[in-house]
Amino acid sequence: MIGRLNHVAIAVPDLEAAAATYRDALGVTVTEPEDLPDHGVTVVFVQLPNTKIELLHPLGEGSPIQGFLDKNPSGGMHHMCFEVDDILAARDKLKAEGKRILGDGEPKTGAHGKPVLFVHPKDFDGTLIEIEQA
Fold first, then answer.
1. Residue 66 predicted with pLDDT over 90
2. How many Å apart are CA 66 and CA 39, to the nearest integer?
3. In this predicted structure, what is the pLDDT of residue 8?
4. For residue 2, what are the β-bridge partners?
5. Among residues 49, 69, 98, which one has the least CA distance to residue 9?
6. Which CATH class is domain 2-133?
7. pTM summary value
8. Strand 128-133 versus strand 76-84 pairing type
9. Pick from 124, 113, 126: which is nearest to 2 by CA?
10. 16 assigned to active site
11. Beta-strand pair 76-84/2-11
């Protein structure tokens, strides 16, 4: 069911500073910031040869990332994203196994323009899991 690791997401208190750190210290390409109002975040992607790192920053009132940063002011790992061939089949399999899909259970469009869903972190040893249609 699960394909490759698409990205690891890190919540950051200062998106510009974090992007500069990755770009300058590691010599990697960092994408331009993209606002995702449906998810309450602004993101950039650190491009790596085999995957990506997504840097997340709060966007607007009620951003879920703000709550995370309130608890973790320095930032930290927020979630891991795995690709799936069929997001609805993956959702149904996860639900059948007792895993909790966050939100209304229907995919939203993610940062790559593809459908995504999130699985409750308590169902994966404290780690929020995102699945994205490949």
1. yes
2. 12
3. 98
4. 84
5. 69
6. alpha beta
7. 0.93
8. parallel
9. 124
10. no
11. antiparallel
CB 7 within 8 A of CB 81: yes
Of the residues 54, 83, 130, 132, which is catalytic? 130
Tell me the CA distances in angstroms from 97 to 5, 52, 76, 120, one per residue in order.
21, 28, 29, 13
- Inter-residue long-range contacts of 100-109, CB under 8 Å, 24+ positions, other chains counted: 107/133, 108/38, 108/39, 109/38
d(CA 2, CA 68): 26
Q: Which amino acid is at 63?
A: S
pLDDT at 46: 98
Whole-angstrom distance, CA of residue 108 vs CA of residue 105: 9
Q: What are 73's two structure tokens?
A: 């002011």
Write down the domain spans for the chain: 2-133
**Residue 51 half-sphere exposure, CB side, CA atoms within 13 Å?**
13
Rounded to an integer, what distance in angstroms lies between the CA atom of residue 75 and that of residue 114? 26
How many CA atoms lie within 13 Å of 13's alpha carbon, on the beta-carbon side? Answer: 7
